[in-house]
Design goal:
There is one protein chain. The protein has about 475 residues and is α/β, with parallel strands linked by helices. The protein folds into two domains: about 1-245 and about 450-475, Aldehyde Dehydrogenase, Chain A, domain 1, CATH 3.40.605.10; about 250-440, Aldehyde Dehydrogenase, Chain A, domain 2 (3-Layer(aba) Sandwich). The protein is about 40% helix and about 20% strand. The protein has helices at about 35-55, 55-75, 75-85, 90-110, 150-160, 175-185, 205-210, 225-235, 260-270, 290-305, 325-340, 375, 395-400, 415-425, 460-465, and strands spanning about 1-5, 5, 15-20, 25-30, 115-120, 125-135, 135-140, 165-170, 195, 215-220, 240-245, 250-255, 280-285, 340-345, 350, 360, 365, 385-390, 410, 430-435, 450-455, 465-475. The strands form six sheets. Strands 14-17-18-13-12-19-20 form a seven-stranded mixed beta sheet, sandwiched between helices. α2 (about 55-75) runs antiparallel to α4 (about 90-110) and α9 runs parallel beside α10 (about 290-305). The mean pLDDT is about 100. Bound molecules: nicotinamide-adenine-dinucleotide. The site of nicotinamide-adenine-dinucleotide has 29 residues, from α7 and α8.
Length: about 475
């Protein structure tokens, strides 16, 4: 753990082990913190706030710029570590490190764009000034699926705004968090400004983060169930809250689209990170007129995907995070099969050869998926592409919107009018139009409904860490 500028053990001396999900091998033992450690981290962040918030935007920008340089220099080592700890194939891990570093340079620049304004008064002897101030100490909780970029997406804007922070990473990926912290430490972050508490049991840390009156803001990325609970506690203590939660993304192919192109897009997108992404498509809506061509290409592509240890050349799909994740995917596939879905590709866990020591599920296509199947409503977080055949293009936007989630949606069409109407009609925070990667550090990321509150990245990303102060000057 990292508290007040020092790498420390937990106060209780307790530790937990971290495993490689592809091989089951133990990678390291890390400190398991409890409420006392979380409080010590908040002490440090709280004490450091006055000095850090008094630095100039240029100083904070320089720290972030230097962090970007160091992260970029270390990108190969970070990617190797990520593949070992989280499982995604090396190519995807390299892409994530680049994405993570993008937040550092983006917010190095945004730090210098925080401005205020003079506002008019009805009195001749009065002037109004409105400025932005950092909110204070930020508590951050991050998930395992993007174990470096989900940290920099919060740390970049928090530091740029002048906030100090405490962070608890997911139990499965504390090593990526440690390596990310080392980047900031080597860039020269002052003591106490960033603090890291690792823990086998997250609940006591979450309790402290959401109840300590010195914490001004909670920023959380993870499941809707946990985010909802923590946001409730934070709100009760009048902390500011941003929560980036789960999703259930529709992927709509309109009748005028090229079914082969759309199927290639779906195959590339769905199996990224073995489907363990909040913006992963969960419902592929294909018109009956294109269904044969779409399914043929999708199945051919998925059939070719190699599943295994992400360090091996050619592997396109890595392991799932743990046994519970495999069991969840298996249960959803069995439920769909039992209710009449076709399973032309995959459909089983993989246990042969080297797969036996990790948590693998075969890349799977389900056809004939219907509303009464669990997969139609619940987030899968695994390598399963459920295809739904629809008849009426006028109804497909309503079908797509029929979910409590609202994070990402995808549309394939060659008609600009159809694209625009879909973009306007879909109730989702991020929409890809013929585009399987509608994300970047430079644009807002976040969802509607049960997918969360607030936006990360873009200009809005730093606004989440600022509050407004108005001055009325009688002159
Ligand atoms: P999770 O909610 O189980 O865990 C997320 C984090 O919360 C982890 O650090 C975990 O230790 C912590 N946590 C769990 N219980 C806690 C408690 N009681 N108190 C405090 N902290 C607690 O989710 P996960 O399985 O790690 O991540 C997968 C989920 O995250 C998916 O639903 C996915 O869609 C979502 N996700 C969302 C985004 C986004 O930006 N919207 C990005 C990535 C992942």
């Amino acid at each position: 753990m990292f508290i007040d500028g020092k790498w420390v053990e937990s106060r209780s001396g307790e530790t937990f082990e971290v495993f490689n999900p592809a091989t089951g091998a133990s990678l390291a033992t890390v400190p398991s913190g409890n409420a006392d450690d979380a409080t010590a981290a908040i002490d440090a962040a709280s004490n450091a706030f006055a000095d850090w918030s008094a630095t100039t935007a240029y100083e904070r920008s320089r720290l972030l710029y230097r962090s970007w340089e160091i992260m970029t220099e270390r990108s190969e080592d970070l990617a190797q570590l990520m593949t070992a700890e989280q499982g995604k194939p090396l190519r995807a891990a390299r892409a994530e490190v680049k994405y993570a570093a993008d937040f550092l340079i983006w917010f190095a620049e945004e730090a210098k764009r925080v401005t205020g304004e003079w506002l008019p008064s009805q009195r001749a002897d009065q002037r109004f000034l409105s400025v932005k101030a950092p909110v204070g100490v930020v508590a951050a909780i991050t998930p395992w699926n993007y174990p470096i970029s989900m940290l920099t997406r919060k740390m970049g804007p928090a530091l740029a705004a002048g906030c100090t922070l405490v962070l608890k990473p997911a139990e499965a990926t504390p090593l990526c968090a440690k390596a990310t912290y080392e980047v900031f430490v080597d860039a020269g972050v002052p003591d106490g400004v960033i603090n890291l508490v690792t823990a086998a049991n997250p609940a006591p840390i979450g309790d402290v983060f959401t109840s300590d009156p010195r914490v001004a803001k909670l920023t959380f990325t993870g499941s809707t169930a946990v985010g909802r609970k923590l946001a409730g506690k934070s709100a009760a203590n009048l902390q500011r809250v941003s929560v980036e939660l789960g999703g259930h993304a529709p992927f709509i192919v309109f009748p005028d689209a090229d079914p082969v192109h759309a199927a290639k897009g779906a195959a590339a997108l769905k199996f990224l990170n073995a489907g363990q992404a909040c913006i992963s498509p969960n419902r592929l809506y294909v018109p009956a007129s294109l269904s044969d061509a779409f399914n043929e290409t999708l199945c051919a592509r998925v059939d070719k995907l190699e599943t295994g240890n992400g360090v091996v050349d050619g592997v396109g799909v890595g392991p799932l995070v743990n046994e519970a994740a495999v069991a969840k995917v298996e249960a959803q596939v069995e439920d769909a099969r039992g209710k009449g879905a076709g399973v032309p590709v995959g459909g089983t866990r993989l246990t042969d050869g080297d797969h036996g020591s990790g948590h693998f599920f075969a890349p799977t296509v389900l056809t004939g998926v219907r509303e009464d199947m669990t997969v139609y409503r619940e987030e899968t977080f695994g390598p399963v592409a459920p295809v739904i055949t629809y008849e009426d293009p006028d109804e497909v936007i309503d079908l797509a919107n029929d979910t409590n989630y609202g994070l990402a949606a995808y549309v394939y069409t060659r008609d600009i009018g159809v694209a625009m109407r879909a973009f306007e009609g879909l109730r989702f925070g991020i929409i890809g139009i013929n585009d399987v990667n509608p994300t970047s550090a430079s644009v807002p990321f976040g969802g509607m409904g049960d997918s969360g509150l607030g936006r990360e990245g873009g200009h809005e990303g730093i606004a989440e860490y600022l509050e407004t102060k108005t001055g009325g000057f009688a002159i």
